[in-house]
Design goal:
Helix content is 28%, strand content 37%. By secondary structure, it is of the alpha/beta class. Bound molecules: S-adenosylmethionine. Residues 2-3, 6, 48-50, 53-54, 69-71, 74, 94-96, 110-113, 116 line the site of S-adenosylmethionine.
C-alpha cells in the first residue's frame, strides 16, 4: 500500500517538493472551477491531500476544504501546518471508500495521488465514492499517469543536497499487462551529516489511456469534460502524448 511509503517519507515530503509552485497550481484549479462551475465552489474535498499543500492554500482563499489521506504521518505534517485552524479539516481515510455524509462542489486529487489506484476495481470504487460526494454539476479535477508510447524503465536517482541531504535510488519496471510501473527504492536522508532515515521499499503506480479513463468515469456516473497538459501546473495546454501526468476534469450531470 502507498500509505506505508508515505508514512516513511512524510518528514521529507515537503523538502522533496520545494520546487513545486503550489500557489500557481491553486490558481489553475480556481480557473478550472470558474470555467466549469456556475459559481465558485463553496466546498472542496482534496483526495490524497498528503501534507496539505493545496488544501491549506485553498482554505486561505476562503474555500471550505476537507483533506483526505490514508497516511497518518502525512496528515500529522498537514495538521501541524494548519496550527489548530478548523479549515481545512483533515480526515484519515482510504479514498477508495469513505463516507463523509455530505457533498462538495468540487473534488481534487493532485500530484500523482490518483496513480496509486492500481486496478480497475480500485479506480471504479474511488470514482463512485467521489461521485457520491459531489453535488449536481460538481467537478472532479485530478492528475493521472497517462499511458505513453514507451514507459521509462531502468535505474534512476534523486539527489537533494543541503540539510537534509536526500539520496533516493530507484529501479523502474513496467508491467504491460497490468499497466503498472513498479519502482524499487532505496532511500537515505542525512541530517547534519548523519544518517537520519533509510528504508527499502517497492511501490507501483497505474498508467491509463484517455479512452479507458473516460469509460471508467462513465461507469461511475461522471463525464470526462477535459484532458489537458499543464505548464508545470500553471496553465492548461492541449494534451501532449508524451505528458506523463496530465490533468483531467470530470463533471457530474445536473
Ligand atoms: C504524491 S502524494 C500527493 C500529495 C498531495 N496531493 C500533493 O499534491 O502534494 C500521494 C498521496 O496520496 C495518498 N494516497 C495514496 N493512496 C491513497 C488511498 N487509497 N487513500 C487515501 N490516500 C492515498 C498518499 O498517502 C500520499 O499522501
Amino acid at each position: 500500500m502507498a500509505e506505508r511509503l508515505f508514512d516513511r517519507l512524510a518528514a521529507y515530503y515537503d523538502v522533496l517538493h520545494d520546487d513545486v509552485d503550489y500557489p500557481a497550481e491553486c490558481a489553475l484549479l480556481e480557473a478550472i472551477f470558474s470555467t466549469y462551475l456556475p459559481h465558485p465552489p463553496a466546498s472542496i474535498v482534496d483526495l490524497g491531500c498528503g501534507t496539505g499543500n493545496h488544501a491549506l492554500l485553498l482554505a486561505r482563499r476562503r474555500y471550505e476544504v476537507t483533506g483526505i489521506d490514508a497516511s497518518a504521518a502525512m496528515l500529522r505534517v498537514a495538521r501541524a501546518k494548519a496550527r489548530g485552524r478548523p479549515n481545512p479539516a483533515f480526515v484519515r481515510a482510504d479514498m477508495r471508500r469513505f463516507d463523509l455524509g455530505r457533498r462538495f462542489d468540487a473534488a481534487i486529487c493532485m500530484d500523482g495521488a490518483f496513480t496509486h489506484l492500481l486496478t480497475d476495481r480500485d479506480l471504479l470504487a474511488h470514482l463512485r465514492t467521489v461521485r457520491r460526494h459531489l453535488n449536481p454539476r460538481g467537478v472532479y479535477v485530478f492528475e493521472f499517469a497517462q499511458a505513453l508510447r514507451e514507459e521509462t524503465v531502468g535505474p534512476g536517482w534523486i539527489h537533494r543536497t543541503g540539510d537534509p541531504e536526500i539520496v533516493w535510488l530507484y529501479e523502474l519496471a513496467f508491467d504491460r499487462r497490468r499497466h503498472l510501473l513498479t519502482s524499487q527504492n532505496r532511500f537515505f536522508a542525512f541530517e547534519r551529516g548523519r544518517v537520519a532515515r533509510t528504508f527499502v521499499n517497492t511501490y507501483s503506480t497505474r498508467v491509463l489511456s484517455v479512452p479507458v479513463l473516460r469509460r471508467l468515469l462513465e461507469r461511475a456516473g461522471m463525464r470526462l469534460v477535459r484532458v489537458a497538459s499543464t505548464d508545470e501546473g500553471t496553465r492548461l495546454r492541449p494534451l501532449r502524448r508524451d505528458d506523463p501526468l496530465p490533468m483531467a476534469v470530470a463533471q457530474v450531470d445536473a
